Amino acid sequence: MDHFTKCFQTLLVFHKPHSYPYQRHQSQFKDDILPSSPSKSGSNGTSSHSSVGQLSHQGPVKRGFHYLYVDSLQPSKILLSFSALLNWGETTEEKREVSVGSRAGVLQVQPHSWRTLESQSPLLIIRTTSCRAAVLSLPPGRHTLSVHVRAALGYHVHLYSMAPFVFGDEEAVLPHLAQESVRFREQAASMLRALASLVLGFSREQTALRTALEEPCCPQTCCSGLEGRTHRQVFNSAVYTMLSQALGRKLTPEEGFAVQALTADPLLFSADITKHSTTSEAVAGAPEGWQDRQPTDRETHAVTILQAGFKGVLTRGVLKASKPGTKENLTASKTLADMWPSVESDPEKHSSILLCSILAHPATIAGLYPCQQDESSRMAFSDYTLPLVQETLSSWLLVFREVLLVPRDMLLSAKVFSPVPCCQLHVINNDTLEELPQALGRLVPCVYRPNEVGETHTKTLVSLILRTTNPSSLMTDDSVNT
């Protein structure tokens, strides 16, 4: 036994695979080995899925490609069991010519992103000539991984985990990336719970409630100094935005004053007034004699004194309303109690608005919340589906054209799924009439900026390929995911 422990530092024993609550398995075999047919999957008390399909005939080695999506608050471990069906050769000469390394099946797991064409280093590699299992350990958060499988005649991949995950193709994974991550929802919910406790107990002692609000809203990394004050202003502005959207209108002066008392921020609306006011509105509201003239030094000094006086009155009023036991505090507490049911009508939506407003603010510190690491994998997509019609002309055919208007700077990527191999997607900037760059026939993900005319997405294909393709396959859908 002493030599055994020196030779093997780690011994993994897997038993009772049905004890794992989440399971997925995928199988693909060469068509002359096993016909394409669905196989039975799952067991009582488990979440499981399987599929059996045909591998590509291109090349001596058969390949498969899948996606793995994991989103968890805790570190997760996924057991991958990989079985490869290999061609050992029928004669002694064939067995001698093929080395063991070239015969081995390979499973490789690596991070994946639709935002870039660059490949990342693999997290796990399994090589086997029969069957082998390994554990993939992932930190908390959202992860999107690609699973590349290579085998001679076929393979079977089985995944087990105590945490939920998704294993399949793009159609199975992309809808989950359009949603907020688990850490995002948990962070937003903790913020809203702490804020609700302060609102409901606003007329009582607030020291403990405000301290409890600081923990989820203002982490220790920025609780002091200039960064702390800036972040509190960002949070206060997000609270105002959430309440405005919950009520579906602008806040009345009484409601705005109550929000200032809740956040203890007399300057809450100063940035909002600067943002939404325009010079034309200011000129339209000025008397006719004041238009097209510069104020004198005496007038400027008088306005400065008035503004300072008004600011002092407002600051004293807000601080007085934020202290329990005062008449102003009871009035603000009643106003907040009348506003809060609109927030509680859909807490998940409004908590998301609160946190999104914080993260979208330019002054928000990068890496302030753990959920910010998950935003890099978040994406939305839109499908454009159209049928292909058989043509006999030997020319390029325009089968898809769409003009997209970009409201703000956005990172976009386009991908084509088509039964016709010879097809090309072009993206043209309608302002400059320039085509966006491509790499290896694929559109490079890039940042699209707002313009006047928009971006035109066109897809062309050669009719000669359509003519030589099986006509029955030409009526399948060709979709562009953006």
From TrEMBL:
PROSITE patterns: GLOBIN_CP_ADGB (PS52042), IQ (PS50096). CDD domains: Adgb_C_mid-like (cd22307). Transmembrane segments: none annotated. Residues 31-57 are annotated as: Disordered. Residues 158-361 form the Globin domain. Residues 36-53 have a biased composition (Low complexity). This is Globin domain-containing protein.
